[in-house]
Design goal:
mainly alpha
C-alpha cells in the first residue's frame, strides 16, 4: 500500500483551515465553553463537536480524492495527523474527554470521506 503524503497533508490543511473558521465562529457566537467544558447536556456543544468531526471528513475526502489507492486509509490519516498536531499544540494542557471522543470520531469521518472520494473517483476518473 502506497501512502501519498501530499494527499494526506492536503486533506489535513483543508481540515485545519475549516476548523479554524469553525473555531472563529464558535468564539464569535459566544460558545467558547465548548473548548474547556463541553457537555453532552448542551445540544449546541454536541452539534459543534459533530460539526468539527465532519470537517475532518471533508479533509478525508480531499485526501482520498488525491490518493491513487487506499482511499479510506488516506482519509483516516488526516484525522491521525490532526490528533498529533493537536497533541503537540496542547502539550501540558488537559483535554476534556468529550473533545477526545470528537477527535476519534473525526478519524472515522475522515476514513468515510476518503472512502466516498474513492467511490466517486471510480465513477468519474480524473483525466
Amino acid at each position: 500500500m502506497n501512502i501519498r503524503w501530499t494527499a494526506v497533508i492536503s486533506g489535513f490543511i483543508t481540515d485545519f483551515a475549516l476548523t479554524i473558521l469553525l473555531q472563529m465562529m464558535i468564539v464569535l457566537f459566544g460558545q467558547s465553553a465548548v473548548f474547556t467544558e463541553p457537555s453532552l447536556q448542551n445540544p449546541i456543544h454536541v452539534l459543534l463537536i459533530l460539526l468539527g468531526a465532519s470537517l475532518t471528513g471533508v479533509g478525508g475526502f480531499v485526501a482520498g480524492w488525491f490518493a491513487s489507492e487506499a482511499f479510506a486509509m488516506h482519509g483516516l490519516l488526516v484525522g491521525v495527523v490532526g490528533i498529533l498536531v493537536a497533541a503537540l499544540a496542547n502539550v501540558g494542557l488537559s483535554v476534556p474527554p468529550l473533545l477526545l471522543f470528537g477527535q476519534v470520531l473525526g478519524c472515522v469521518c475522515g476514513a468515510l470521506g476518503g472512502m466516498l472520494a474513492g467511490r466517486l473517483r471510480r465513477v468519474s476518473p480524473m483525466k
